[in-house]
Amino acid sequence: MSIELCNAKTHLLDCGEKLIASKGFVGVGLAEILLTAGVPKGSFYHYFSSKERFGEALLVRYLDQYLCQLDALLKADGTPARARLMRYWAGWNYMACGISAEEGGAKCLIVKLSAEVADISETMRLTLRDGTDRVVQRLAQCLEEARQDGSVPSALSAQPTALTLYELWLGASLLAKLHRDGSPFENAARSTEWLLGPPMN
Predict the structure, then answer these.
(1) By CB neighbour count within 10 A (0-12 exposed, 13-18 middle, 19+ buried), where does 172 fall?
(2) In whole numbers, what is the pLDDT of the chain averaged over residues?
(3) DSSP code for 180
(4) Is residue 39 a contact partner of residue 12, using CB atoms and an 8 Å limit?
(5) What is the pTM of this model?
C-alpha cells in the first residue's frame, strides 16, 4: 500500500475518532465523517466495507495505542510497582483513562463506547472485550511485580485484584460523567489503596 493510501486511511480514522469520542458511534453518521475528513464516499469504501468495519478498525488502532502507552507507564523504572499502578489510576481523572489528552480534552473510547456498541455490533463488542482483557492482564502483571517487591502484601491475588480494580475504575468513570466532577475518581483511589493493603516493606 502506498504512503498516500496509508495517510488517507489514517486521516479517516483520525477524523472519525475525534467525532465518535465526542458524539458516540451511533451519533455520528458516515456523511459527517466524510465531510470532516474531506474525502468522497468511494474513498471510504476503498478501505472499509461498512461503518461497522470502520468502527472495528478504529477500536483496534485505539486499543493498540492505549496498550503501548500503558506498557510504557507500568514498565519497571526503579519505583515500586504499586506506585506505577497508582500513577496509571491517577491519570484517569485528568487525562481520560491514561491516554494523553489533546486540547479540549480527550475521551476514553473504552468508556465511551462499551455500553453503546455491545448491543449493536458483535465485532466491535469482541474487539473491546479482548482489548480490556489485555489491559487487565497488564495490571495483573504489575500487581505480581508489586507482590515481589513488597509494595503490596504477598497474599494478594494479582489476577482477581486487577479485574476488581479495573471494574472499580470503569464504574467511577461513568459516575464522573453523571456528577461532572472528580469525586468518583477520588473515591476509587481510596478504595484502591484499601484493596491493595499496606506495603510489606
Answers:
(1) buried
(2) 88
(3) T
(4) yes
(5) 0.87
Pick from 137, 67, 74: nearest CA to 109: 67
Closest by alpha carbon to 57, among 7, 6, 115, 13? 13
Q: How far apart are CA 93 and CA 185, in angstroms?
A: 6
Domains defined for the chain, CATH in brackets: 1-47 (1.10.10), 51-196 (1.10.357.10)
The set of cell numbers assigned to 198 is 499496606
* Residue-wise pLDDT tens digits, 134-151: 999 999 999 999 999 999
Output the nine-digit C-alpha cell for 38: 474531506
User: Reduced to 3 DSSP states, what percent helix, strand and coil does the chain have, rounded to the nearest 5?
Assistant: 75, 0, 25
pLDDT of residue 104: 32
C-alpha cell of residue 176: 464522573
**Residue 184, phi then psi, degrees to nearest 5:** -60, -35
